[in-house]
UniProtKB/TrEMBL annotation, chains A, B:
Transmembrane domains' residue ranges: 12-30, 101-121, 156-175, 373-397, 425-444, 465-484, 572-602, 628-645, 651-669
Organism: Trapa incisa
Upper classification of the organism: Eukaryota, Viridiplantae, Streptophyta, Embryophyta, Tracheophyta
Residue ranges constituting the CSC1/OSCA1-like cytosolic domain according to the UniProt record: 198-360
Protein name (record): CSC1-like protein At4g02900
Keywords: Calcium, Ion channel, Ion transport, Membrane, Transmembrane, Transmembrane helix, Transport
Length: 756, 756
């Protein structure tokens, strides 16, 4: 077991690597050539222009103002400077709510840590159990943990009381945070400008009608059942085929640009390519001609498909976006049942136009239930049996296997150095690839489940990932062994035994988790701010594909907060905090450092880098809250298990109260706040409608809503622009002259608010 | 263990006692003097008049037409004669849906039984395992059960396949039944006449306002937020105190009548009573004078309280019944969230006026969550620890305890015969009293939980009773021992072990359950039809309290279907059926007899006897469905446990599919049908509104709704009458001249449709 020196060494290494990342970041971000990697958000907002137009040639690429290097950490205070309301305006409520999860971690754990260090550490340290046992090696960390308290000691009262104090403190913080979040969301929805989704309801499972088209049927139904409120509707085209054609054309276009650039730089030789798949096989052809003709062919195909989709009645899916004369009408329609058959005419709030996941709009009810059953079973197998196919791949991917499949590599990999490298590397690589692919797999599963908006897809994937992390990282590290073995243990042991088995191992795993927090948390977050992959990709694209400013705009990859993967990871830190706050409080400072550092970094990122794909108004908060509650309950059960092995069984009746209280607290909060995230109160809707009627009596809402929900392929990039402009015209962050074509009319010259 | 002879004997005894009850019933019901006990429903409907006015004196009390005795079983076909639509008209949808549960039992188990007897009984009988074991006593029943199949035999395939067949058959029946039920409910709601609750929404947790009264606040809020739909509203008075005064007055009135009658019969002596509590202590006073003056006193008090309630603003609770101009408006308001704070302005469909549980209308949200937490904990303790206080009472209630408390009884109970009787009787009596009180206790708990309608209270109590029966009757009989011991077993054993422990004991308990079914099911149902307790009470009341026809009307106790206790008991029979259909199929015929007999009896009872207190439109069906699903899952898990002890572990993967499918089926049905029972589709509402507007353009809805939701004490008995008349005037069952005063204008002479 690691002692304090080992931990210190590990901490030093991780802090140094984190620092190295930060220094690299500090230097790289000051180079004008990297400006679009580290400040893409400002470019997209149109506030920051390309720095390549001003100054000398060198200055365009390298920052020679050495004074700025001295202030290389000044992004940290700058990240904190922007006040929250402005942050919501600038980055959206989703991002702001997301970084508040880190802040929530600080709010919960800073007071708990202080108290635990003051009360529990002395109680544990003077327990002196471990010193009396001679033949067991123990680390200094363990002396600070509950293991150092003798069995059946009265000292456990301290832990018991602290468990209560910590629980109630967490309740207090969580309740307040939920309240703040609900108010923030309602305020956000109330003060935001007119948006199409406020007036619109997504109707699915429109029943087929022999006499009427989908469009007529929808119109008649809503004219009859919402006569005073119905305004207009838009049918949904099944444009998935068309979308894939557009996608392919875009990729060909990139290749064409690449070869054109190549030819421009070296005009002595026309570039060539091969006509087979991936340009690897087939006849050698002139690249520029080949791609030009391919694009032309595809354009024709696209046009045919576009006509087919618009004219063919079978291309209309039985779903529609129905718009109402006011928010009240939409709120009513979204919250009520329309037909006596509850599986047709399903209505729900329309997601933002950007947030719609188009391919899923047409899944019928029965297929949905079947898909969800299958995915639930699949998730179970994925979580508990994922090691089986990986072990199979690993058994294939050894030296002999490679030699059999690719005999020509034999001389190379028979070399001792290469051989040992391959043997050491290969078994791990299958697992690594699986873990990298996992979020994609989970997202695919959520898509199969048939959710209709990107935000709900992300939320569902996060739930799946949370389960996976809990079983395979948390439990997997504590009871070493695969998830499958844990499942067996779980099924074979009594329900009261399982918390004991896990609880007993918890204090011993503290050092492991401290190291984990430093590697995954500290260094991982520092790597996040450096953005190494987008940096490389941007420069590659910039060299090969960029011709105009617009191309450069598209070459930027601002990225976004990936809720589906990040949030479950944060939940792991919360879980570790809850579990160890009573057992090994010395772990808490490491978690606090993680939360504080991550808060800083992500606040900087959402200000300067990330560009969210949609805005859901923090709809994910109930999920966050629920998972925190799950973490608390798990920690309480494990504490109970641990205590009962310490001859402190009398504490069980007192400890069982905690999970019951926690469940009750959850139900209470759910009833109190959740509806703010799923429903829209009529009172609000009425207030906004009345206000709008008074201020804009001549508003032509029908024209405003006419094209709001059109599949993006029918609009090109116009859809997004339309929205962004609309929002900014009414509340511009800074004065901007940009009206329609974002790329060409950028404000030149660097803006003064670089670091905000 | 019992063999076939024992079972036969037990069956004979139970069949004989059931027959005795039936014969007694057949004779008693033909006596005109019992007419109001066995046909109260028809009196309440006003179709049947008192038989005492016609014929000779003797004929008024005893039926001398001996021909009718020969046809003593002819109530059975008569009970089946009334077609279902007419039954719904006559007895209401609640009652009709309730007896369909028995019919559902027949639909599920008749085909299953035939198949099981044809396939599984031969498979088990020829298993010949039990015959080879010499030193184990076994019964003939066991030879027909799965115990007779050798471990690890291929014969288990038959059981496995049958488990699948039975499950899918049950799915099929359940799905159809849910569909029929949902349609029946929607049709019932659609075709029923105008009722106040169609236009009305119950609003609770009206926030306090310093400037406005509750009434003004409600009016303003709904005028603003439902401007086109709001019609009127009624505030709710806290009239609990007044109601208890009225109740006391009624009881005094009864005593007064009793003494008046006594005096009339024997006018030589004025009756006396004692003025202390229960007329047992205190001064001797003239009874008629005493009660007259008491009633006068109470009437004054009542008048004062009535004035106080009406004038005191504090007597108005923060709840109101808000009525709308149409069903559409009410449907919208009931299904949407009103305020941004989801714990105020809570709206839900108003229950029928008769169905409102007035004392619970004013419970605030926070108190509700606390109460529900406490009741959940209380239910847990009640279910698992109820034996502790009973054992305590039993330990007190022995001979010595009685002698200590009531020493004067010593000479009596020291007698050997009395002593043995007391010793044998006393321990059981505490348990018996508890079991009789249990439904009341559970109902009290539901009331504390704060539900606002009688129907929801009944549904909640049924849920609690179901848990109690499952743990204490089903599990308690299988693993003999108290629930507390079961809880310990459950916690100490692995989750896979518990089904094994229970599963292994199941085949051995078949004979016990067969006896249970005969005693509780067969004989119990036969006793139900006899109505011994209401018979005695009616004759007591008739002799002492009845003066006028109206009094006699009130002396009738038609009773009603007690959903809260009957439904969980039926569920036990379903559970037994599901569990034993694969294991000991010979138990099934006994269940079928129960279902068929109970169906007959209850159909007769709802036609001729019961008078439901409210009509909820079969809102309970989702609960029935859910508990059937729970029963199926339990049976599947137990079968899995049993199979794995029979060296047939390979079947586990196949059997685990069943509960997963069942859960999926439940989710599917819930999504497909449940909303028919909790929501009201706007389409329906709009159709009815439009129709009404066309047929009755001059309807004064406001006047119609004005007094619909007034606390019953403000109306006396008028409230119920009002409703009944309204329903019948529009669709009278048979022509009746009764218009307003039910008691005085009864049709005299017996009607011809007695037995329908």
């Amino acid at each position: 077991m690691a002692n304090l020196q080992d931990i210190g060494l590990s901490a030093a290494i991780n802090i140094l690597s984190a620092l190295a990342f930060l220094v690299a970041f500090a230097i790289l971000r000051l180079q004008p050539v990297n400006d679009r990697v580290y400040f893409p958000k400002w470019y997209l907002k149109g506030i920051r222009g390309s720095p390549t137009r001003s100054g000398t040639f060198v200055k365009q690429f390298v920052n020679l103002d050495f004074q700025t290097y001295l202030r290389f950490l000044n992004w940290m205070p700058a990240a904190l400077k922007m006040p929250e309301p402005e942050l919501i305006d600038h980055a959206g409520l989703d991002s702001t709510a997301f970084i508040r999860i880190y802040l929530l971690g600080l709010k919960i754990f800073v007071p708990i840590t202080s108290l635990a260090l003051v009360v529990l550490v002395p109680v544990n340290w003077t327990g002196k159990t471990l010193e009396t046992i001679q033949n067991v090696t123990f680390s200094d960390i363990d002396k600070l943990s509950i293991s150092n308290v003798p069995s059946g000691s009265d000292r456990f009262w301290a832990h018991l009381v602290m468990a209560y104090v910590f629980t109630f403190w967490t309740f207090f913080v969580l309740y307040n945070e939920y309240k703040i979040m609900a108010n923030m969301r309602l305020k956000f929805l109330a003060y935001e400008n007119r948006r199409p989704d406020q007036f619109t309801v997504l109707v699915r499972n429109v029943p087929p009608d022999t006499d009427e088209s989908v469009s007529e049927h929808v119109e008649h139904f809503f004219c009859v059942n919402h006569p005073d409120n119905y305004l207009t509707h838009q049918v949904v085209y099944n444009a998935n085929e068309l979308a894939s054609l557009v996608e392919r054309k875009k990729s060909l276009q990139n290749w064409l640009t690449y070869y054109q650039n190549k030819y421009e730089r070296n005009s002595s030789k026309r570039p060539t390519t091969k006509s087979g798949p991936w340009g690897l096989w087939g006849n050698k052809v002139d690249a520029i001609d080949y791609y030009s003709s391919e694009i032309e062919k595809l354009s024709k195909e696209e046009e045919v498909e576009r006509q087919r989709v618009i004219s063919d009645p079978n291309a209309i899916v039985p779903a529609a976006f129905v718009s109402f004369k006011g928010r009240w009408g939409a709120a009513v329609c979204a919250q009520t049942q329309q037909s006596r058959n509850p599986t047709i005419w399903l209505t729900e709030w329309a997601p933002e136009p950007r947030d719609v996941y188009w391919p899923n709009l047409a899944v019928p009810y029965f297929a949905l239930t079947i898909r969800r059953l299958l995915m639930a079973v699949a998730l179970f197998f994925l979580t508990f049996f994922f090691m089986i196919p990986i072990a199979f791949v690993q058994s294939l991917a050894n030296i002999e296997g490679i030699e059999r499949v690719l005999p020509f590599l034999k001389p190379l990999i028979e070399k001792p150095t290469v051989k040992s490298l391959v043997q050491g590397f290969l078994p791990g690589i299958a697992l690594k690839i699986f873990l990298i692919l996992l979020p994609t797999i989970l997202m695919l599963m959520s898509k199969i489940e048939g959710y209709t908006s990107l935000s709900s897809l992300e939320r569902r994937s996060a739930g799946k990932y949370h389960l996976f992390i809990f079983v395979n990282v948390f439990l997997g590290s504590i009871i070493t062994g695969t998830a499958l073995q844990q499942l067996k243990t779980f099924l074979k042991e009594a329900p009261t035994e399982f918390p004991k088995t896990v609880g007993v191992s918890i204090p011993m795993k503290a050092t492991f988790f401290i190291t984990y927090i430093m590697v995954d948390g500290w260094a991982g977050i520092a790597a996040e701010v450096l953005r190494l992959v987008p940096l490389i990709i941007f420069h590659l694209k910039n060299s090969f594909l960029v011709k105009t400013d617009k191309d450069r705009e598209q070459a930027m990859d601002p990225g976004c907060l990936t809720f589906a993967t990040s949030e479950p990871r944060i939940q792991l830190y919360f879980l570790l905090g809850f579990v160890y706050c009573v057992i090994t409080p010395i772990l808490l400072p490491f978690i606090i450092v993680f939360f504080a550092f991550a808060y800083l970094v992500f606040r900087h990122q959402i200000i300067n880098v990330y560009d969210q794909k949609y805005e859901s108004g923090a709809t994910f908060w109930p999920d966050v809250h629920r998972r925190l509650i799950i973490g608390m309950i798990i920690s309480q059960l494990l504490l109970m298990g641990l205590m009962s092995t310490k001859n402190a069984e009398n504490s069980t009746p007192l400890l069982i109260v905690l999970p019951i209280l926690t469940i009750w607290f959850h139900i209470f909060c759910k009833g109190r706040f959740e509806s703010a995230f799923v429903k829209f109160p009529l009172e609000e809707a009425m207030v906004k409608d009345t206000l709008e009627k008074a201020t804009e009596p001549n508003l032509n809402l029908k024209a405003y809503l006419q094209d709001a929900y059109v599949h993006p392929v029918f609009k090109g990039g116009d859809l997004y622009k339309h929205l962004v402009i609309d929002e900014e015209e009414s509340s511009p962050l800074v004065p901007t002259k940009r009206k329609s074509d974002r790329g060409s009319k950028l404000n030149s010259g660097r803006n003064s608010d670089v670091d905000q």
